[in-house]
Amino acid sequence: MTPSPAGPPIDLRSDTVTRPDARMREAMARAEVGDDVLDGDPTMRALEERVAAILGTEDALWVPSGSMGNLIALCVHLERGDRFLAPDRAHVLDQEVGTAAWLAGGMPRALPWTAGPGVPGPSDITRAVSRGGPYFALRDRLLCLENTHNAAGGTVTTPAQHRRLTDTAHEAGLLVHLDGARLWNAAVALDVPPAELAAGADTVQVCLSKGLGAPVGSVLAGGTEFVREARRVRKMLGGGVRQGGILAAAGLVALERAGRLAEDHEHARLLAAGLADRGWKTDTPQTNIVMLPADDPVHTVSVLAGRSVLTVPTDDGVRMITHRDVSRRDIGRALEAFPPPG
Ligand SMILES: *Cc1c(COP(=O)(O)O)cnc(C)c1O
User: Per the structure, how many domains does the chain have?
Assistant: First the structure.
């Protein structure tokens, strides 16, 4: 008999699948709005000021997505033909349709994970940066970090590692952009304020639509001058929105929910531990992403889908992400749906 968990599907494909709850929808319905492209939207401004305060930057700009936030940062930082460095398998390298190259004009260089999964070491930066060289040598302009590192399995960069990387980059004459789509998860896992993980980065992108549960939106933070330029590039890319306060209101509610990510992390650990009990080999997750090595990921994913557990195949396994719409009970039901390893 195939175990078949009762109830609606358990969606572990991503933490982006969460739906706004009644409280969030209510805040959206009541939001005070203006025209953010014309002369400003008060709720948008409140959200941007709030995120700038949380991250310890001069200013911040709401953007429709994390991908657009990263792209705007790269467009502002890079000139056509400049090179940027990023940890191997970074989102900005592999998951953004190559826009870093074809829209921002950046030549990418991937850095190895010398300091841990998803985390390069300072010497990887110094080794990669070209010093002088002939006129046709690339100009290294930017280091793009990612915390947590998605493809490495939601792994964290500690404040000390982050500081060493940003110091090394600045000494080498690079700017630093931090893709902090899940910076909230890193902050909760490390029990430090998000500002401590943003310190030293020139610009930071954070997502409101992942674990925090907003339906739309990211924020791009940095200095006043940078944000002024970023606003122009956002408009250029078609990302200026009018009564955006409706969306920003959801973001403000989302920000109140960073603390509960600890629960997602606990659920991810429970899931991994349960899988280990069932004979699967998997590392203890650092945050809310479980990477399960599997011989035939597509087959395993399809078996699970047939049992109402939705997951994502990767090159070498199955990826599962916990979030606010997955309960402890759901984790138990998901475990029952797992076939034996192999
Ligand atoms: C999801 C994600 C993004 C992009 O966010 P979207 O809102 O989906 O465009 C960027 N970086 C990382 C690490 C992510 O996980």
Answer: 2
